Queue: 3 jobs
Job 1
Amino acid sequence: MDERASRALDSKIDHYLGMRRYAKVIELVKEGLADHPGQARYYFYLGVCFYSLERYREAEENLQEALVLGYDKEAVFEWLGDVYTKTKRWVEAERAYLDALSDNPESARVHASYAMLLRETGHHDKANQLMRKALELDPEDDYVVRSHYMFALTKDSRLQQIQSLERLMQVSGDQIAIEVHLGLDALYRDRLTDARDHFRQAFLLDPTNKELAALLEELDWGRHPVLVPLRLVEKIGGPMVVYVVGLGAMLGTRALGWEQATIVLLILYFTYLIYSWTAKPLAKLLTRIRG
């Protein structure tokens, strides 16, 4: 394979990696290895793809080979950490992330991956610190943005829905994969209108897809005017901030002897509680009636 053909192959690999079409990337990389068997980057690509396809033993083997051949230590150790995390080898995962940070202490991606590991193992305070650090280091990095979104969805029902859409990109046609990829990227960045537009285009290409239909429905009712106060609450720190501030204000006014103010705050507090419990079901109902 001459230099021009090699560059063309690498361009194709980057293109399909960007769309998360991992089976196609593996096919292309094996073409490259047939002509250049000692290329560390090809083994690295294989490791990434096998990891993404949940074939963790093959991922580890290829990442280790990339490391032996001299590929970037930070990148290899980060992905090995991900492999060990997925296979619940917690100690090895932490060691890999620390090795990656030793090579580059300012890596936003490694901080995000390490945060996900610590969240998985129940070390929530340290995990939160690491995720904040990742966002400080590079708030625009695609992987950091995605990790932060998934971090917030650890126990949310939408997590499974998002993972299903990510798998859809691996098996769908190019145009659907592109629209889903752009939609997920917009969703991670809280650009809900853009996300809906891309998912709508993907759904028109695959109108039988239940995951796309469910997410579109959720995005539709999620923009309902009834939910505006909830969205404002999220921007100021979430419901816990309201609960803490509300209770603190009531206790404070009561301590000062301001009984009428305490009663008003109590009424407002319980009104908010009732609203927060009923707003989403009401928005869903109104959206269905209207639609």
Job 2
Amino acid sequence: MALTLSVLAGAWLIAPRPAFHPPVTADGPWIPLPRSGMDAGGYDMRMAVSRGFLRDDDTETPVALSCGANPNAPDEPHYRAWIGDGFSEAPYRTWKIDIIVRGNTANVSVREAPSPPMPPRSIGPRNETWVTPARLAVVPLDALEPVRRAWDTEAVWHRTQERMWCDGRTAFLEACVAGRYAARDRGCDLDRGIAQLWSVFQMTLPTPEAGRWERR
């Protein structure tokens, strides 16, 4: 009997096991952090995070820095996406989208995000900042269910970060959940998952005003 148990234990130790995926409950985050994790030891992941810093302007603290900065004030779940046509097809739109979850609603901000930014020449002080105007809305989470489903997929959010040395659709996603940060750069991907997410954003969220800048 003891020999049999030893053999079974040894077989269990060497047998391949499926990857661990934390359970998602009804009380869990609106969109959970990537199941594949976020290994900042990997070069590809560090490059992805650095792109997030480069995209942010001087008017906001990057999500990677604000997330979990105050341990005494729990962060509200915050999801940010830079997504659009990129240089893959006209009219080359790019949106910067912020979704901050508050109970059963979300504060949504959508603005045009030219890449690279091209504000008008200023005739005022050199240190003034120009931004594109944002469309703001408070939206029931039920109305954002298509966004949640399109974002929370293996191709878009949960698979491991990979290299992104190519031109393609703009798609950089960030999340801050319970003080923990995650990011994925899918800028090279022209697959159906990213295209579907971009399409859902356009159908679900308010369309920002294009071609205008304002001083901040």
Job 3
Amino acid sequence: MIRRLPPPPRSVCFDVPDGHGVIEVIGDESGSLLLLAGDPAVLEANDGCGSLGWLAARAGTGGPGLSEVKYLTEWLGAPGLVPDPQNGHAEPPDPQCLRPLLSLLAPGRYVMTAALAPHHLRVVHPRARRVQSWYADEELALVTTDAWPPRDHRAVRGYGDRIRAGGGLPALVALFPTAESSVGHLLDGHHKLAAYERAGARPLVIRLAPQEPRPFRRDDVDRARAAFSEGAPRPQRDVLGGVFSSLRTESV
């Protein structure tokens, strides 16, 4: 008997013509760089040490926090998205509901989907100038961009109560370099994600990705090398050096 693959989640395309460029992602399925206000902040990439080996690194002495999007929390706490019980897909929300966040993106055209995360989900939390590596045997990995685990335990408990009660599920928002990428940067929803983990439930994830991904350019790699490697222990520089060398061969 031939097993049919589930249909892909329904997507919505929308334009951000006047984005402020506070948040931008560059790269492709082999690796991406999250830029905050134009500065390299979080890197995720294949480490070149195995077919499924990946790493994530964070720049700076303190983790970058996306405080600008916090006022979306109330709506994302109960966005009214209903996953299909068969495949977990949900109708994407109206982009206008995410306008406060979308206005922070780099200008361009984006693709949005919404669905329950797969059962095998990895949460990766790179600390400042340290490499976090993992064997990518999951279907999805989310790289944190704020404190992890979250410090507001009351908020986590509140979301946990809502998840266990059923009904309206809270949603996370993650930015991916391409629609097909299996690793994304968690922009909003750290407390919600912690609550899902405590409840043993699959989180509802709103995925954003540029319709036309921007590849690494030579100056992107040079800036990232300086941001992630300066002052780092030698072993980390060696690991990142291999990644940057690989990215350079693919940059334009």
